[in-house]
Amino acid sequence: MQIDRRAFVAAAAASPILLGAPRAFAHLSREPVLRVAVIGCGGRGTGAMLNAISAGKTTGCRIEVAALADLFEDRLVRANGALTEMGLPAVSSDRLFTGFDAYKKACASDCDIVILATPPGFRPIHFKEATERGKHVFCEKPVAVDAPGVRSFVESAAASRAKNLKVVAGTQRRHEQCYIECIERIHRGDIGKVVAGRVYWNMGSLWHVDPDASRTEVENQVRNWLYHSWLSGDHIVEQHVHQLDVMRWVMGGNPTMVRGVGGRQVRTDPRFGHIFDHFGLEFQFPGDRFVFSMCRQQDGTDGKVEEVFHGSEGVATMRSGFAEIGGPNAWRFAGKQRDPYTQEHINLQNAILKDQPLNEAEQVALSSMCAIMGRMAAYTGKDLSWDEAYNSKEVLMPDSVDFGPRPEAPVAVPGKTKFE
């Protein structure tokens, strides 16, 4: 069984007492109980489920898995197997849901929290359903692949806030102590006025699933979703959104304009869909400030995953587990921090149990929009304003999807691909 990095961290940190406590003795405990439904049971969904269980050790809350939902039965079997391998009860067969309507059944279950971890194209409709059902949500990033999806998510975010629902997103740097302390220092002026930034996610290639002639085109694409923009948004949206979220956090809002380049230099095999393998972007902000953004997925190249911000009196550098400020107010993070993948679930559970305000839905939607506008600028070769991008009518994710044919989208050609 393969469990992703987040799942491994969760399994290592999970409480032996929690894992060994028989369900039969639950009535003897006064600990609160939160019931979780998981929609999307691949590596990320399974990992988030285990993170939530591990978080209960800190919040003093017993986490029960109320339902599992996925398009594919094999994913449900693996997620259930992860539970039993940890000594936890498996989800009963009447609470295992498959198919394109599985998310509705999971949201209708007697859960308190819904984990949304399907390919991102589905996120807006799943979040809308969870909100209408009155569920708290942990939603993986990004939360849309096109501007209409972002606008839908923002609309659902308003409804979620009105219902006092708690929402935490998978932009885990927002829950990592070194980032929190560094950005607090930036905002209080420790590097002076922020004038520019550089943000990077450069790495090699990721996993892929080869097409199978016995499957429909839709199933092949969903199983290989990273490489199809209607499902992932391209890797700038699916992955680099982390750095662009930090960019919005530091800069205090949305960019006014973006220009960029990108293309496919090495990702030419049809098995890797039609997405690009590199992007280079310049985001402009009010006050004649800018942030340069670079991301690539090319084997054999140097890796770099960090954010750097230049101020009038210093420079701040951040990456996972590390933060420092150079200049007159020099500082380096030396504190302790919990793994942020678990911390985000701790924060969500505490907000629910203590009825504290915590709703990151609009925040992560606007960060997703930054990534989407960057992709659109690189695909088309056009400089785009925030308003142009946000109001785009381009729809990548259809209102409904079913197993069947779906021709591969063409590779974008800057100067020929049109902005809609």
Can you describe this structure?
With 420 residues, the protein is an alpha/beta fold. It has two domains: 5-173, Rossmann fold, CATH 3.40.50; 177-336 and 360-390, Dihydrodipicolinate Reductase, domain 2. Helices cover 36% and strands 21% of the residues. A nine-stranded mixed sheet has the order 14-13-12-11-7-10-9-8-15. Strand 1 (33-39), helix 3 and strand 2 (62-70) form a beta-alpha-beta unit. The termini are far apart.
Can you summarize this structure?
The protein is α/β, with parallel strands linked by helices and about 425 residues long.
Share in β-strands = 15-25%
Oligomeric state of shown chains: single chain
Could you tell me the number of beta strands? 15
Q: What is the succession of H and E elements? A: HHEHEHEHEHEHEHEHHHHEEEEEEEHHEH
Determine Rg (CA atoms, Å): 21 Å
Helix content: 25-40%
| Averaged pLDDT | 93
Which ranges are low-confidence, i.e. pLDDT below 50, for 5 or more consecutive residues? Answer: 1-28
Assigned CATH architecture of the largest domain: 2-Layer Sandwich
Task: Please tell me the total number of domains.
Answer: 2
Structural class: alpha/beta
Q: What is the CATH superfamily label of the largest domain?
A: Dihydrodipicolinate Reductase, domain 2
The CATH topology of the largest domain comes to: Dihydrodipicolinate Reductase, domain 2
SSE topology:
Layout: H1 5-13, H2 16-20, E1 33-39, H3 43-59, E2 62-70, H4 73-85, E3 96-98, H5 102-107, E4 113-116, H6 123-132, E5 136-139, H7 147-162, E6 167-169, H8 177-187, E7 194-203, H9 217-223, H10 229-232, H11 235-238, H12 241-251, E8 257-263, E9 278-285, E10 289-297, E11 304-311, E12 314-319, E13 322-326, E14 331-332, H13 340-354, H14 361-380, E15 384-385, H15 386-390
Helix pairs in contact: 1-3, 3-4, 3-13, 6-7, 7-14, 12-14
